[in-house]
Write a structure and sequence with these properties.
The protein is mostly helical and about 80 residues long. The chain has helices at about 5-65, 75-79. This is Short coiled-coil protein.
């Protein structure tokens, strides 16, 4: 094996290592982006759950205050 062959092999290994390092860095950035996005979705989900609870309570209050949704005693009305 000549020194040129060894040098070419070292160069190929260096290029492969560089490619792998760049790929790992890219995947790390992708993971960070996805993690950040998941955190944002979790926050939005909690906010929407809270809003739904408020709206649900509001609807219940409206229904209990409205005579349309009150139960009627049909037996006493027939007499």
């Amino acid at each position: 094996m000549s020194s040129d062959d060894g040098e070419m092999e070292n160069q190929a290994e260096l290029e492969e290592k560089t490619r792998l390092i760049n790929q790992v860095l890219e995947l790390q950035h992708t993971l960070e982006d996805l993690s950040s996005r998941v955190d944002g979705v979790k926050e939005e989900n909690l906010k929407l759950k809270s809003e739904n609870q408020v709206l649900g309570q509001y609807i219940e209050n409206l229904m209990s205050a409205s005579s349309v949704f009150q139960t009627t005693d049909t037996k006493s009305k027939r007499k």
